[in-house]
């Protein structure tokens, strides 16, 4: 894969590792193995999801970027439609890469984009702006919509 720079793994990949002490440890092991196999890939990432019920999940993520390891511990999230979380994560990470952010910022932004995607009826996230995703990272999940911001700010 000489032309591939960024890859996102399926969350089930950590399930296959079994005996690791935690999802974070399993993700690290999986991403390190992938890096050995695909040394040209600069950033590898994966989501971590434990499902308590259809609408209650624990959502986390991890990345390995240029030898830098970063992980976002799983947090409880309310899920409306679970489809699109991994795509949201990958899109958020890529947004960070394109903006020159470090691994931790890319990870956290991707985590929030994935969390937002599964908390709506769409298969993708529709943040009002970049700030909304950073608010989600910080634990503020108040709903924000672009049309509400326009009305309030007059922009």
Q: Features of this protein?
A:
single chain; 155 residues; alpha+beta; UDP-N-acetylmuramoyl-L-alanine:D-glutamate ligase; 4-stranded mixed sheet; globular
Order of helices and strands: EHHEEEHHHH
Count the domains. 1
Q: Regions with pLDDT < 50 over 5+ consecutive residues? A: 146-155
The rough form would be described as: globular
Would you report the number of β strands?
Answer: 4
From the alpha carbons, calculate the radius of gyration and give it in angstroms.
Answer: 16 Å
Helix content: 40-55%
The N- to C-terminal Cα distance equals: 44 Å
Per DSSP, the total helix count is 6
Q: If you consult CATH, what is the topology? A: UDP-N-acetylmuramoyl-L-alanine:D-glutamate ligase
Reported for the largest beta sheet, the result is: 4 strands, mixed
Tell me the name of the CATH homologous superfamily: Ribokinase
The CATH C-level name is: Alpha Beta
Detailed description of the structure:
The chain is an alpha+beta fold. The chain has one domain (6-153): UDP-N-acetylmuramoyl-L-alanine:D-glutamate ligase. It is built from six helices and four strands; from the N terminus they run βααβββαααα. The chain has helices spanning 12-15, 23-37, 85-98, 103-118, 130-137, 146-153, and strands spanning 6-9, 43-53, 56-65, 68-78. Strands 1-2-3-4 form a four-stranded mixed β-sheet, sandwiched between helices. Strand 3 (56-65) and strand 4 form a beta hairpin. Helix 3 (85-98) packs antiparallel against helix 4 and helix 4 crosses helix 5. The radius of gyration is 16 Å and the shape is globular. It starts with 5 loop residues before the first strand and ends with a helix.
């Amino acid at each position: 894969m000489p032309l591939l720079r960024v890859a996102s793994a399926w969350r089930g990949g950590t399930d296959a590792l079994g005996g690791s002490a935690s999802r974070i440890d399993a993700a690290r092991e999986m991403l390190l193995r992938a890096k050995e196999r695909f040394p040209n890939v600069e950033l590898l990432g994966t989501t971590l999801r434990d499902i308590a019920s259809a609408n209650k999940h624990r959502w986390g993520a991890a990345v390995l970027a240029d030898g830098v390891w970063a992980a976002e511990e799983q947090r409880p999230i309310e899920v409306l439609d679970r489809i699109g979380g991994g795509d949201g994560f990958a899109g958020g990470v890529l947004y960070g890469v394109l903006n020159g952010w470090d691994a931790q910022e890319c990870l956290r932004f991707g985590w929030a984009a994935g969390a937002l995607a599964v908390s709506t009826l769409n298969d993708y996230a529709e943040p009002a702006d970049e700030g909304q995703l950073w608010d989600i990272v910080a634990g503020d999940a108040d709903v924000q919509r672009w049309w509400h911001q326009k009305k309030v700010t007059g922009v």
